[in-house]
Known about the structure:
Largest interface: A-B, 68 and 68 residues
Structural class of chain A: alpha/beta
Number of helices of chain A: 11
Radius of gyration of chain A: 22 Å
Oligomer: homodimer
Mean pLDDT of chain A: 97
Order of helices and strands of chain A: EHEEEHEHEHEEHEHHEHEHEEHEH
Number of strands of chain A: 14
Shape of chain A: globular
Strand order of the largest sheet of chain A: 3-2-1-4-5-6-14
Amino acid sequence: MSIRIGIFGYGNLGRGVELAVRQNADMEVVAVFTRRDPSRLKTATNLPVYAADAVADFRDKIDVMILCGGSATDLPVQTPALAAMFNVVDSFDTHAKIPEHYDAVNAAAVEGKTTALISVGWDPGMFSLNRLYAASILPSGQDYTFWGKGVSQGHSDAIRRIDGVKNAKQYTIPVPAALEAVRRGETPALTTREKHTRECFVVAEEGADTARIEREIVTMPHYFADYDTTVHFIGEEEFLRDHSGIPHGGFVVRVGKTGLDEEHTHVIEYHLELDSNPEFTASVLVAYARAAARLASEGQYGCKTVFDVPPAYLSPLSGEELRRTFL
Amino acid sequence: MSIRIGIFGYGNLGRGVELAVRQNADMEVVAVFTRRDPSRLKTATNLPVYAADAVADFRDKIDVMILCGGSATDLPVQTPALAAMFNVVDSFDTHAKIPEHYDAVNAAAVEGKTTALISVGWDPGMFSLNRLYAASILPSGQDYTFWGKGVSQGHSDAIRRIDGVKNAKQYTIPVPAALEAVRRGETPALTTREKHTRECFVVAEEGADTARIEREIVTMPHYFADYDTTVHFIGEEEFLRDHSGIPHGGFVVRVGKTGLDEEHTHVIEYHLELDSNPEFTASVLVAYARAAARLASEGQYGCKTVFDVPPAYLSPLSGEELRRTFL
Lengths: 327, 327
């Protein structure tokens, strides 16, 4: 029997889930829910689309609901509401607010006897897992996370809000010297500026004052002021040709010591290089949807994270097959 | 209350466990067991040493026994025998025989109501975990494992058995071009020869025929014949100075595709660079000993592998602390 998946919200991430499920023979998407007019939404593979309001009618028709809304305003409301009715997986990524999100979702899932997996993706998600594994194995050590090269949606949006900007894309880039030092097993103390640079490609409106736009970007507090930022003004054609993708990735590195006098150094590195951030995130969500279905079938209800899920639960293979194939 | 650890077997790995436990405040080693004369074994930090035969007297004094013998002849006998009495962790690494080892250990652990974790370390172990995670997330893709640069004990031993060889060390080295191709997201079909080279440092006995030794090495079936092998004859002094360490490491890379027509490529890479293979392996064993104690306290008996253990169980931190710190 297939695991019946619902997709709640259809943007880049929802589309990614739609496509990822096709790569998993033990699953199918039975419904997409949208707050837009369902009759006007056509998905990449023509899935049935319903109004978000109708979701309660699907309680017996969906095994796991994958939430594909945003962390700022959608998920804090939607995940608890849907966890009351469905097993759910979300990609809530506001790190500082995870404890509060966890509590709200856990209360709903315990009450509803459902399994809810939150903050699934790559950061939080696979990067978090690698931080945990590495720190547990090498308790005496130092962690480093580098992001990029990749597109930061939030920073791109911040640039687009500047007067005179028609379009913009911002890439976060690890500083090569810092990354290489850590990979060599050094444990430098790195400031924000020493870890990442920011590169911006901006299409200005005709006649706009590009010097003023550049100044507003590089001095923007929180977003750019603490970084070395480069701004390139380019034409719309070049922008569409070279900057339409949503690549991302990064590095989680732990440098740890062992030995009688900590004389031995070990470097554990996890590195992602992703052509499509939303499609990869969706692929992680789908693997964890399989785990959510299994946890729920065992009566393991409540809110959980990637830390709580036995790795075997992500795979369609049996324990015996896994030991034979992957161990 | 501390987790009380026993160490069964005291070679490089046992010593590594002794040192790793010192880095974990919630654990202590209460006894080391040896088949040698216990009165003549002094451990790195002067732990109490007992005869292996006396181990049954420690049933109530040890929470988890970490087995530090070899996979060829020790563990197939010792792990089932000790799993009947203790929660155990071993590093059984004969990949082809894992299913049979699993069955033997599982029968003993189920009968003895103990928790047994087998094949813990980095390969099998952390590399296996990364193969499983990556394949579950990107089901359409290709896996690559590269080992090294590092010392292969088995290959070094094979050289030392050649007539006229006084000492030898063999390094396994990934072929840079192959590794780089995979990292770029290509999915080449690679032969054994295309993936790794072997480099040997040999101290010959005085007057030995080095041309004959070199020929015997590079043509040795299974060990060297399928590889491009380089042999260096060096003096004993240089050997002791430059080749006394036991470094190792390697790469697990998965190249996977997503999208409507699999138009997007993703590369997941896990990379270890280890100054001391036995000390790192020991550090993994110790983290999983913590998990074994917790699984046993929950009544989760029987044989398990890294695939079955929720990542959170490796850490001394609570779920709440983990979500706040690592997610």
